[in-house]
Write a structure and sequence with these properties.
Blueprint lengths: L1 H80 L9 H6 L34 H10 L2 H9 L12 H24 L5 H13 L19 H29 L1 H11 L3 H125 L2 H11 L2 H56 L6
Helix pairs in contact: 1-5
């Protein structure tokens, strides 16, 4: 029975574990779906905000560009209407500045000099004043410079005559080209920092598979093979000698251990047999002790495992009971809440129905009341109209005669006597009869009381006489 119960408990435990695992999987799936939905929602919000910010940035840039173009157009229009302002001449500053037109006039204006004493400062070399001086100057210059100067042929300078209108059109065209270049640069603006990061992440996401590098190839040796073999042999000899040195150093360090091992090998057969017998005896003792210890430990472990299994079963049963109790309480709470909600909903429905019926009844009552009132008024009006017509038609004369008869003094006096005097007399007679009826019982009581007192007095007088009244 216990084994069957254990098997049943194990099967039940496996079923509960499977149900719990399924619930955990569903819960994890729900959490993962919620997290993905939340991430998607936040991504959508971020993308929406990003698009809004980009739109605002584009609008701001377009507004700035429009304002700039408008300002440039205003400047270009203002340049068309600008006139050269004539400033007054400052004679003091002109004479103080030796680079002004006073000392160096412009020849295009038709002035050679404005200084009347400038001829005193002009240099007039004597060689240039006569033909002999010029010839002497030519002879003094080297012939190579003269030939070189005559050999150089410079192209004639063609000076184009450009008017003010052409210069103004050229300046306007330059401004328009600069504005067009600025607009193109604004349209081809650099991507924002976030876009650059997204492009970089996209590049990392879309990484191409690593291409296999080319297989290295060994170049043929450029030297002689015999020399290479000799060098390899020399390296092997050097390595072997190094290994021999390491082995010798290790032997020197472990010399005592080697001697001890050699002494063990030098033992005799008898010594080995004695050592073997002692070792076998020690091993037998050790085996017996280990077997006893193994039995004790196995029994203790078995008992502890059974105790642990029992404790685990108790814990599992207690957890199952607690889980069942918690589930029962939750279901009871849910059922109570559901019943409470149903009762509340039923009360609300009944109250709504009652209010609706009250409204319907009041509406029907008011409707019937209005209808009956209208009908009564209509019938009363018709009846009054008919009575008025009847009175006016056939009963008018009869009513007039009756009213004339009852409106006389005798009729009025008879009505007053009939309605007031006679009823008053009847009421007084009734009150008198009531008083007489009421006095009848009082008189009877007094007579009975007086007869009783008389009898008592007679009895007392017969027994001993009445006492004196004094």
């Amino acid at each position: 029975m216990s084994e069957q119960e254990l098997r049943d408990w194990n099967v039940r435990e496996e079923q509960i574990f499977e149900v719990q695992q399924e619930k955990l999987a569903n819960f994890e799936a729900g959490l993962r779906a919620d997290a993905e939905e939340r991430e998607l929602h936040w991504d959508e919000r971020i993308e929406t905000q990003r698009q809004i910010k980009l739109t605002e940035k584009d609008k701001e840039i377009s507004q700035i560009q429009r304002r700039r173009i408008k300002a440039l157009r205003k400047l270009s229009e203002a340049r068309k209407t600008v006139e050269a302002k004539k400033e007054p001449r400052d004679i003091v500053s002109e004479y103080a500045d030796h680079g002004s037109e006073v000392y160096a006039p412009l020849t295009r204006n038709g002035f050679i000099t404005r200084d009347k004493l400038a001829h005193q400062y002009e240099t007039r070399p004597r060689q240039l004043e006569s033909l002999d001086g010029l010839l002497e100057l030519e002879r003094s210059d080297p012939a190579a410079k003269i030939l070189e100067a005559s050999a150089i042929k410079r192209p004639p300078k063609t000076k184009l005559k450009v008017g003010y209108k052409e210069r103004q059109d050229r300046r306007l065209q330059t401004e328009l080209n600069r504005t067009d270049a600025a607009l193109r640069a604004a349209k081809l603006a650099k991507p924002s920092e976030k876009e650059q990061k997204e492009q970089l992440l996209a590049a990392y996401r879309d990484t191409k598979p690593i291409e296999r590098p080319p297989t290295p190839s060994v170049m043929p040796p450029s030297h002689d093979e015999e020399v290479e073999m000799a060098s390899i042999l020399l390296q092997r000899l050097l390595r072997g000698r190094a290994m021999q040195n390491q082995m010798f150093e290790g032997k020197e360090r472990r010399l005592e251990l080697i001697k001890e091992l050699r002494t063990d090998e030098d033992l005799t057969v008898e010594d080995l047999e004695e050592e073997g017998a002692e070792e076998a005896e020690a091993n037998a003792k050790t085996d017996r002790m280990e077997s006893v210890l193994g039995l004790l430990i196995s029994s203790q472990l078995d008992e502890m495992s059974k105790e642990r299994r029992r404790y685990c079963e108790e814990r599992r049963i207690a957890e199952m009971v607690a889980e069942a109790e918690r589930t029962r309480r939750m279901r009871e709470a849910e059922e109570t809440g559901r019943r409470h909600r149903e009762l509340e909903a039923r009360k609300e429905a009944q109250e709504r129905f009652r209010q609706i019926m009250l409204v319907h009844n009041s509406s029907a009552a008011s409707y019937l009341e209005d209808l009956c009132g209208d009908v009564i008024n209509q019938v009363a009006a018709d009846q009054a109209r008919a009575e008025a017509e009847l009175k006016h038609g056939r009963l008018g004369e009869l009513f007039d005669r009756l009213e004339a008869r009852h409106s006389s003094h005798r009729a009025i006096a008879g009505d007053l006597v009939q309605n007031f005097v006679l009823p008053e007399v009847e009421r007084q007679q009734e009150r008198r009869a009531a008083r007489v009826e009421a006095r009848k019982f009082g008189n009877a009581a007094r007579r009975a009381l007086s007869s009783v007192t008389d009898k008592v007095e007679q009895i007392l007088a017969q027994e001993g006489g009445l006492p004196d009244e004094s």
